[in-house]
Specification:
The complex is a heterodimer of chains A (162) and B (744). Chain A is an alpha+beta fold and 162 residues long. Chain A has 2 domains: 82 residues, no CATH class; 70 residues, no CATH class. The longest helix of chain A is centred in the middle third of the chain and has 14 residues. Chain B is α+β, with helices and mostly antiparallel strands. Chain B folds into 3 domains: 136 residues, PH-domain like, CATH 2.30.29.30; 318 residues, ABC transporter transmembrane region fold (Up-down Bundle), CATH 1.20.1560.10; 244 residues, Rossmann fold (3-Layer(aba) Sandwich). In chain B, 33% of the residues are buried. Classes of the chains: A alpha+beta (162), B alpha+beta (744). Chains A and B meet through strand 6, helix 2, strand 8 and strand 9 of A and strand 6, strand 7, helix 11 and strand 18 of B. Strand 6 of chain A pairs parallel with strand 18 of chain B. The complex binds adenosine-5'-triphosphate and magnesium ion (MG). The site of magnesium ion has 4 residues of chain B, from helix 15.
């Protein structure tokens, strides 16, 4: 299948306008400005299942896998996702100010080092056996993908809160 | 850096870069320019402000974005986490002012209240620190939670002191017998071995004294145990009720984040353990310490050298305690949490049993419970490992100590430094001494257990309600019922649900709140009831900010019927009278009549005395709803809030309830939420919400004439078609591509 054929099959085009917003043009020529790509399973299966939704939240298209999109559209979607999704993944716990909450955590994430305040132990939720979601005092979520695979020191610190 | 005539108006820190990686930076606003830089980068970028410029602010999933536009063109974009949002928001508001009039005097532009340097939130004049950051600041509660428990023991200090005195007496009494063995040995038995006849008088005196001391020890011990058990129960009860009372006062936000089972285990079993610790173990510990001190004193008075040898294991034990203490406490904390987890499974499945059964998931739920228990076992095993090594080690040390004392004692006897009697007495004391040591070391485990529990209890007790009771509540005269929402914003966690909503409701007016599912209707109701506090703006009732009113006093003016009616275990009459327990039977019947519940109640076998079962499960959905309407009507509120109050009853019943409500609504400020728009025909005005914003306000006819959002909603319902039918757009579905050339 060549790229044109794919575009045909998908029947829509994406572009970015001067105000930096994604513009969706459907096969029938309908134009939607400010569409956003959304992952359906951002945590458990980030690479599968995307929806393009309008600013009002209505679904325009469903994309099973990003790789299926033709090149220019995929880059746009990728870019937009990167600018929209914010779920830093904790790679290492450098320091915690105290084992009693509220406690200030200094962490290293896949988005660089960060410092945040954990308000209570209940703000650490278990998503699955190994996955944890930490909510800081301002409502930002941090993910610990597999707490058993953190390094020893981090594990020991984290363990005190579990 | 600033040019002449230029003044700094606002500064906001940013903490993310464009790719949403953590990076500090700052945006500064002067009355001429907007400046920004990224840390580590000395150069400031600048944008002279002109009239076409606009700052737009939005946030999603914890990350905010501040966009600078010139017309429709994006000039710059700054990203930051939610923590910085207030400061950024302030700045963008100031930006609008500056753009309008760059030369407004900066003093006039100064915000009225001082602003927190860290987050930009306003600091109320009577507060020292920022309420937003202050709560976040590093002020962990003292880890010495056990000492804080004293507050619960304090009311009983007289009885505790009595218990202590009795303990002292009992301990002293048990120390007399070994002392009497000395003269028995040295003045009776050993002389007899050397051919001296037994002095019957002396033996009789000694034995009588022995008996008296034993008897005294029994009496004192009994009194002590009784007194302490008494105190223990009371402390436990106080701790439990205090914690529960505090818990009840916490806001809905708190409960939103907690698990029922966990809270139950904290209030149930952990308070129990703490009270046991406070009254029994702690006293035991005191006894042990006393006993050891007394024994040590006696031993030293008899023979200092031998005493030294006896005390040899003490430092070792102290060192061991030091080693295991922390580990034990963490272990016990874990045990507590896991126990909470076990309870959570129960609290989840028992209320949801119908779903479990309907989907035939009994075995999976059983598996979940087994898994929680397995986890419980694993955690317990680990603690027990530490603990079980500890206790025998203490015994080993003491037994070894005993051997050393024997050896040293015999050697001393052989050199005539001490008598056989002294050695015997020593050995008798040491036996007790070491037993005490053993039991004293056991306190380590109890202490740590109690400390772990105390930590979890204080987590509840230290939690300040996010809907705080004002320090000086404004006295509330009879409410007229004028409600005014002024620019309110609200977010659940990082999700903005209400965005800048303004609305004024006149006293006695009936407002119909309509909008798509998830548009924020129930949230608005929650805010008006002050289940949550708005994050910005204010809600005023009769011109008074509801945050300055006493919470219970304010709520007593509100009759609320919820989307999910909840009934308590008890009779129907009790449930109706829930908000006014002193209501007469006639009142209850009148309220039930008004809610059209009277007749179905009479059909029940026990009428108003029928039990409704837990959560009212023996009633149908519509019946539950009518009871909750009766409950709201009975308190005769100034403000009546009906959130989908008639969603579960058939149209006939709804019409009847509606008729009754029409009478009751008269003169009360009423806010009614309904999906069935026909329900709201009586409303004076309808407010159409869409994604947390008011899109239309007005009476039915006017809105219909306007042919806007309400008209569409109404049409969709009148045609009785599913709303999605009038979607112009059905999403395209792109299936996963199959492997190239694959089959089809
Ligand atoms: N406790 C909560 N925590 C987080 N988000 C919530 C919470 N309660 C509601 N929401 C979200 O807030 C939005 C508004 O919810 P709300 O209950 O106010 O809707 P509604 O208008 O009453 O809808 P419905 O007509 O279905 O009852 C929804 O998107 C919902 O997902
Ligand atoms: Mg609702």
């Amino acid at each position: 299948m060549n790229a044109d054929a794919v575009v045909q099959a998908f029947g829509f085009r994406l572009s970015r306008n001067a105000s930096g917003r994604l513009v969706f043009t459907s096969a029938t020529g309908e134009v939607f400005e400010g569409v956003v790509p959304v992952r359906a399973f951002p945590i458990t299966s980030p690479e599968e299942g995307f929806a393009l939704v309008t600013a009002e939240g209505r679904e325009l298209a469903w994309i099973a896998r990003l790789a299926d999109l033709p090149e220019p559209d995929r880059l746009l979607v990728d870019e937009e996702l990167a600018a929209r999704e914010f779920l830093p993944e904790i790679r290492r716990l450098v320091q915690v100010s105290s084992f009693a909450t509220p406690s200030t955590w200094t962490v290293e994430t896949d988005r660089g080092p960060s410092v945040f305040v954990l308000k209570g132990e209940d703000d650490i939720r278990r998503l699955s056996h190994s996955m944890l979601l930490v909510t800081d005092s301002s409502g930002v979520h941090y993910l610990v993908r597999d707490h058993a695979r953190l390094d020893r020191a981090s594990r020991r610190l984290l363990d005190r809160f579990l | 850096m600033l040019a002449s005539g230029e003044t700094l108006v606002a500064v906001a820190e940013t903490d993310l870069d464009e790719r949403l990686r953590f990076a500090t930076g700052a945006v500064a606003l002067t009355n001429r320019r907007l400046l920004s830089r990224v840390n580590g980068d000395d150069a400031w970028r600048e944008w002279p402000i002109d009239a076409s410029m606009e700052l737009r602010l939005r946030d999603h999933a914890g990350a905010g974005s501040l966009d600078l536009f010139a017309g429709d063109r994006l000039l710059a974009r700054w990203r930051f986490t939610l923590g910085r949002l207030p400061a950024v928001q302030k700045m963008s508001e100031r930006f609008a002012e500056v753009r309008r009039d760059p030369d407004a005097s900066p003093a006039a532009a100064e915000p009225s209240a001082p602003v927190c340097g860290r987050c930009g939130a306003e600091v109320p004049p009577d507060d020292e620190e920022c309420p937003r950051c202050g709560a976040d600041a590093e002020s962990p509660p003292s880890p010495r939670n056990l000492f804080r428990l004293w507050r619960f023991a304090q009311p009983y200090r007289a009885r505790l002191a009595l218990g202590f005195v009795l303990t002292l007496g009992a301990t002293a009494a048990t120390l007399v017998p070994p002392y009497l063995t000395m003269p028995l040995m040295d003045r009776v038995l050993i002389p007899y071995g050397k051919g001296v006849p037994i002095d019957v008088g002396l033996v009789a005196t000694l034995l009588a004294a022995l008996f008296a001391s034993v008897f005294a020890a029994w009496g004192l011990g009994w009194a002590r145990t009784y007194v302490l058990a008494l105190v223990s129960e009371r402390i436990g009860a106080d701790l439990r009720t205090t914690t529960y009372e505090h818990l009840l006062r916490l806001s809905l936000e708190y409960f939103g984040g907690r698990r029922t089972g966990d809270l139950m285990s904290r209030i149930g079993s952990e308070t129990d353990r703490i009270c046991l610790f406070l009254s029994l173990h702690l006293l035991d510990f005191a006894t042990d310490v006393l006993m050891i001190a007394m024994t040590a004193a006696i031993l030293i008075s008899i023979d200092p050298w031998l005493a030294m040898v006896t005390l040899l294991p003490l430092p070792f034990i102290a060192w061991m305690i030091h080693l295991v203490r922390d580990r034990l406490r963490h272990g016990f904390e874990k045990v507590d949490r896991v126990w909470g987890e076990v309870n959570n499974v129960l609290a989840d499945t028992i209320p949801g049993i119908r779903v479990v059964k309907a989907f035939a998931q009994e075995s999976r739920e059983a598996g979940r419970f087994r898994e929680a228990n397995r986890h419980n076992l694993a955690v317990n095993d680990r603690v027990n490992l530490i603990w079980s090594v500890f206790s025998p080690t203490v015994t080993l040390l003491t037994e070894t100590g005993l051997l050393v004392v024997w050896a040293f004692g015999i050697w001393q006897v052989s050199r005539d430094h001490i008598t056989v009697g002294v050695l015997t007495a020593f050995l008798a004391y040491i036996g007790r001494f070491y037993t005490r040591l053993d039991s004293m070391s056991r306190i380590v485990s109890f202490t740590q257990k109690a400390a772990a529990g105390a930590k979890r209890i204080f987590e509840i007790l230290d939690h300040v309600s996010s809907v705080p009771e004002p320090a000086k509540p404004v006295a509330l005269p009879a409410l007229k019922g004028r409600i005014e929402l002024r620019g309110i914003h609200f977010r659940y966690g990082n999700r903005a649900v209400v965005k800048g909503l303004d609305l004024a409701i006149e006293p006695g007016e009936m407002i119909g709140l309509v909008g798509h599912s998830g548009s924020g209707k129930s949230t608005l109701v929650n805010l008006i009831c002050r289940f949550y506090d708005v994050s910005e703006g204010a809600i005023l009732v009769d011109g008074v900010d509801i945050r300055s009113l006493s919470v219970p006093a304010y709520r007593s003016n509100i009759g609320l019927v919820l989307q999910e009616p909840f009934l308590f275990f008890g009779t129907i009459a009790e449930n109706i009278a829930y908000g006014r327990p002193d209501a007469t039977r006639a009142d209850i019947v009148a309220a039930a009549r008004a809610a059209h519940a009277h007749e179905f109640i009479l059909r029940l076998p026990h009428g108003y005395d029928s039990l409704v079962g837990e959560r009212g499960q023996s009633l149908s959905g519509g019946e539950r709803q009518r009871i909750s309407i009766a409950r709201a009507l009975l308190i005769d509120p100034r403000i009546l809030i009906l959130d989908e109050a008639t969603s579960s009853v058939d149209t006939q019943t709804e019409k009847e309830i509606q008729k009754a409500l029409d009478n009751l609504v008269r003169g009360r400020t009423t806010i009614a939420v309904a999906h069935r728009l026909s329900t709201l025909r009586r409303a004076d005005r309808l407010v159409v919400l869409d994604r947390g914003e008011v899109v239309e306000v007005g009476p039915h006819d006017e809105l219909m004439a306007r042919e806007g959002a309400y008209f569409r909603l109404y049409q969709a319902q009148a045609r009785n078609v599913d709303e999605s039918d009038d979607d112009r757009w059905t999403p395209q579905v792109i299936p996963a591509t199959r492997a190239a050339g694959g089959g089809a």
